[in-house]
Structures are given as structure tokens and as C-alpha cells.
Amino acid sequence: MVELMFKDDPLVSVLLPVCGEDLEIVEESFSSIAAQTYKNIEIFILDDSGVGRFEKWSDQKREKDARVFYVKNWTNMGLTQTLVKGARLCHGDFIARQDADDFSLPDRLSYQMEALGSCPECSFSATSYISECFDAPRVERILPDSNSRLIDALFWRNPICHSSVVFRRSYYEQCGGYDLRYRVSQDLDLWLKLLSLGECAIVKD
Q: Which sign, positive or negative, has the C-alpha torsion 148, 137, 110, 98?
């Protein structure tokens, strides 16, 4: 069991946007978050389909797990606006991201909250990850081993997987959060702003 440095286990709000993904894939993604060993979480299913495609499924999840919340966009708003909306609605002091087609290992949030608990000056945490896409080879993406190297890498490419991140809500709000001007690369913009305020707690496992 991972030992946390916080006095209590802070609430982590997980933002899980969905739109046109296959329900089977979303089910796997959701289940991997719901089964985290770090239990003090809430899961916001952010339905950006514009037609409530995941409403019935989300209601079924909510009936079994009170940590689940469903948010419906009446029109397709895009990822950035959907994340901004979700961040405003969540209750936790920490916000985690999970994409509908990604899978998190059971101890992911425990390791990240341990890292953040031992690094009060860190504005967010990110992990290494494995990339699997259709017929492409499986590739393990290892994060740089220091913040200076991470910052250098960000100017060439984005080595941080959006679904691998947990950030402190206070820092998110201080830096202005996701920028609505960006329909894509809103994550890269946020990482750079968070790094201007604090460090990244890198979890390489």
C-alpha cells in the first residue's frame, strides 16, 4: 500500500470527457478509474456528444457508485470548453484527467498523490505511460527524469500524456486553467503555465 504524506486523503476529482467513443472502450476506461486503490475520488462523466449519448449508461453507474456525476452538454462544445466546465463543477482540491480511450493502472492515483503529498511546491504530477494505437507497435513513453529536462522537451514536443496528470486545483485556477482559445494543445498550454508556478512531480513507474 502506498503511504500518503497528507494528513487526510484529499478528494480527487476525475474529469472523464466522452463524445463518440464506443461504449465498450469507455467502460474499460471508467472501470480502471473506479477501481483505483486511492478511494477518495469523484468521477465526472462529461458527455459532449450533444445528444446525451452516455446519459443512460452514466445513470446506471451513478446508481451503483455515488462518486459518479454526469454532466451533459446540450450541444457539442469541444474538449477545451468541456474540461473548463467540468473543472468548475468538481469539488476536489485535486483534479485528475482520464480520456475515454485510456486505461489507468490501479495504483496510478495513489502514486501521484504520494508524490504530490511529498512535494508541496509541485503544481501537478504526471506519469510515464504506454502508447498502444491500433496496429502500431506498443511503445513505453518514459518522462524526462528532471523538471529542467521536462521543460526543455516541452518546447520540442509534448511528452506528457493528458490522461496521466493530476493537478492542484489552486494552481489550476491561479494560472487561468485551460485556455478557451485552444481547441487542441490546450494541455500543452496548461503544463507550461503550471510549470511557471511550481514543479511537476514526475512518477516514472
A: positive
